[in-house]
Amino acid sequence: MKKIIWFAMVSMVVLLGACSSGGKETSNDSKKEVIQSIQDSGKLVVGTSADFAPFEFHTMIDGKDKIVGVDIDLANEIAKELGVKVELMDMEFNAVLAALQQGKVNLAISGISATEERQQTFDFSDNYFAPPQKMVINKENANELTSLKSFAKKKVGAQKGSVQEDVVKEQVADAQLVSVAKVPNLIIELKQGSIDGLVLEETVANSYIENNPELMLADVDLVSSDEEAYAIALPKGEEELQKKVNQVIQELQSSGKMDEFIQKNTELAKKAEE
């Protein structure tokens, strides 16, 4: 009887061990590298907030609403390198990184700066654009708003979730920060006088000023840092995808195509508002 019981117990252990081993092999077999997964799906899913001309914005092409911009051209070049097409997910800026963290998108490309805080959660590509920060105001207030001190107790806008919020907090400390999700809404508030100033990256600021002649850049100095340069956000640990992305960025910069993207989309943004 003892032998029978002992044999049954050994058999059970062997059976359980086999089941456990088999399950582990199945798990490993089903696990795919992210690049292979992207290629298998045939698409690179990119999160962006298309209200940031000339980097990402809506315009009409052949009677259809399209999302275009420097970042979109960059996304298309990365997709081409991977042999797939781009699928864009347009959302509010402060939701873009959340979508990346939740696995809803493969990359976040939306004028994103690789701040120390963000680097704790995400990996980033090499920087592809270093934007000076500028203050946009109404021309009618040009004689009044001539220094950062003149913005004391004034309302200064910045896009919600952006580094421009930190610029206001740290460099225009006596002002009241007004955070809004969409840049076009901030432009409207500035034109209506609901806010007194708006911090934007220079290229974006000039794009909106071109189409809103009552606005201008204030003659005040805002300090830019390396943390404010734009980079592509990736999930933590995706080193092979990061290498591919950096390879594309380096090729675009060395060939001059990145500058071409900026010039082309700046002109396109002007036409979009005509």
From TrEMBL:
<feature type="domain" description="Ionotropic glutamate receptor C-terminal">
    <location>
        <begin position="43"/>
        <end position="265"/>
    </location>
</feature>
<feature type="domain" description="Solute-binding protein family 3/N-terminal">
    <location>
        <begin position="43"/>
        <end position="269"/>
    </location>
</feature>
<feature type="signal peptide">
    <location>
        <begin position="1"/>
        <end position="23"/>
    </location>
</feature>
<dbReference type="InterPro" id="IPR001320">
    <property type="entry name" value="Iontro_rcpt_C"/>
</dbReference>
<dbReference type="InterPro" id="IPR001638">
    <property type="entry name" value="Solute-binding_3/MltF_N"/>
</dbReference>
<protein>
    <submittedName>
        <fullName>Transporter substrate-binding domain-containing protein</fullName>
    </submittedName>
</protein>
<keyword id="KW-0732">Signal</keyword>
<dbReference type="Pfam" id="PF00497">
    <property type="entry name" value="SBP_bac_3"/>
</dbReference>
